[in-house]
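pls read this protein.

:::
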Amino acid sequence: QVQLVESGGGLVQPGGSLRLSCAASGNIFDLVIMAWYRQAPGKQRELVARILYDGTTNYADSVKGRFTISGDKAKNMFWLHANNLKPDDTAIYYCNAEVQTARGLVPVDYWGHGTQVTVSS
């Protein structure tokens, strides 16, 4: 089994910054894809940012230039650095990873329980 645990959420003023962390533990051979999603009240969960197996990063248009995703596979951790936060960034942020538990096995999708980010003055 694999567990993902987020930390770093909270209340921040518009224009402020946060760093969200995701710690993965358990039977991990490789974090193939590392990603952050968010879900605002009344809206569907959406992809915020992800790192693919080859290091390529993708970002939602709404966060490009403000958010940066990074990861350290040796530590089984990844982060979302969020700068110039806006009220529209208010949401529950979830970390997600496609995890290979052994060489040659198909990666399996895992989710954290989420961390609340509220941007308000």
In short: The chain has a mean pLDDT of 97. The CA atoms of residues 69 and 80 lie 5 Å apart.
